[in-house]
Amino acid sequence: MSGDVNGIALAVFVFFFLLVTWMGFRAAKWRQAENSKSLDEWGLGGRSFGTWITWFLLGGDLYTAYTFVAVPAAVYAAGASGFFAVPYTILVYPLIFTFLPRLWSVSHRHGYVTTSDFVRGRFGSRGLSLAVAVTGILATMPYIALQLVGIQAVLDVMGVGGSESTHWFVKDLPILLAFAVLAAYTYSSGLRAPALIAFVKDGLIYLVIAVAIIYIPMRLGGFGEIFSKAGEALSRTDPATGGPRGELASGPGAQWAYATLAIGSALALFMYPHSITATLSGKNRNVIRRNTTILPLYSLMLGFLALLGFMAIAAGIEVENGQLAIPQLFDAMFPDWFTGVAFAAIGIGALVPAAIMSIAAANLFTRNIYRDFLRPHATPEQETKVSKLASLLVKVGALVFVLGMDKTVAINFQLLGGIWILQTFPALVGGLFTRWFHRWALIAGWAVGMVYGTLAAYGVASPTQAHFGGSNAEIPLIGEIGYIGTTAFALNVLVTVVATVVLRAVKAPDGVDETRPDDYTADAGEPPNAPVAPAVSHREERAPTA
Amino acid sequence: MPVPPEEPGGGQPVVTPSRVVAGLCLLAPFVGILWVGLYARVEPTLAGVPFFYWYQMAWVLLSAALTAVAYRLVRREEAARAARRTAVAAQERAGGAGA
Predict the structure, then answer these.
(1) Can you give the pLDDT at residue A166?
(2) Nearest CA in chain A to B94
(3) B9/A541 Cβ within 8 A
(4) How big is the A-B interface in CB pairs under 8 Å?
(5) Which of these CATH numbers, 3.90.226.10, 1.20.1730.10, 3.40.1190.10, 3.40.50.300, describes A10-218+257-417?
(6) Residue A546, SS3?
């Protein structure tokens, strides 16, 4: 590994990296609009993407390099429980089918760029909007940082990561370079850069998985052989816990955790700002709906990818750090040039989501902190400028995160981020369907969910960590082990409902709702079909006007 | 699952047969996946892959198909609603009884 550079693999990797760099800068001119000064242009690609571009963009965005490294790593480490990513991505599409078209429509009508924009407009509450924005930024930062972990893993296996004794600057130089380039083209091209690069990324990923899933089992004697070897290895006693390392199918004690992790993660995925950014860049209401029927192709790929974890066990890959399992497997199985292709897929797989996430976080900062609290009368040009700068800052922050602190800090924060972002669900999705929830009740529910989730995650110990050792804990009252995020979410909803009943009873003042029922079903090209009336009650049914 | 939204205009019904079927299509994966006890076993294997894995992989395809069905139903319903709204509006313009 270290000190032993794989020259051919590295050359192929560098080739693809240069290719996407060139594409990233060229992207600024791709499908350019006339008014390129507004935040819609830089931050949402002009809201112009059709079904296929959105498919690549969302696929490139949701199935990140970290996913590619972490999911098989989890399967490698513990078997069945690591496979939860597959049911989670199965559930997410029927779920978003129900609410994302409404979010697209209302955002289209009112020019919303972020979820916080919508929450402020719907509930007339800057506090609630700020809570959603801050949660989004906090949850996204460590996620960007973890994309670097994906790049680092492949660089390590190629032998350019350097060993622990290497000077820090030499060791981190490749990452610094990659990030500087990423930052530069994101700054100049905005969302168009990752949209264009996503084509290369996803093409490479599909190619690598298709080859891996046929070629590696052939070399290892077929799936029957792989699973029998993996089953044997998983049933052996793990000295750290005193129990078996894992299992091939979830045992009775692990099923609650499996189901709650799947549902909780599915609920959370489209609360992340980067998912919403890709959603709102669609050019009409049905782009996202059509995508829910074709995005599962990525889930299928993710399932095969997860199975690579078993192949790594069967191939006898032994690593201390589970995240190196898959890069090591590729290195051991593939000829050098194809190892380079596979590593390029993971490396570019990190750049696309990192770009979109930084844009999404920057949009949140610009719209919901800078404009709402610092400069209420910012022009579109100023907004775009601030957003571009914020996207740089966010990336620098993520870089400091990974290089300056231990990697486990980023992983812990990402775990927390998932729990946190889920707490914005009631305000966003609840708000898309009803205005019954009171704005103050939503803030209270959010706060309770955040505090409970953080404390519960802090209290989880593992053989290697005293705190944040995992994402599961005992569910109060039920007594089974389940995902903390889902428990916190249930608590959040409970508090929101009870507090709303109380606040409605004491007639606490409601915020002004700037949206109307027909905003939620509007499509592109439809004229606004009634003059805008100020502060219309949401319950009021209006006769259609010609 | 969230309730179907209240639709503005024209007093058209909120719950319709095609909406119910679409809702069931979207609900089915949740039942098939969240009931982990149903599929948490190794046998029967398919081409050497334990049931636990190929069952879930099959659901990826099944849920995509069901979502596609829901999409068709919702689209057809939307088109019909839009047509009825236009008809109502035309009637009103022609001097028919409004409210």
Answers:
(1) 61
(2) A546
(3) yes
(4) 148
(5) 1.20.1730.10
(6) coil
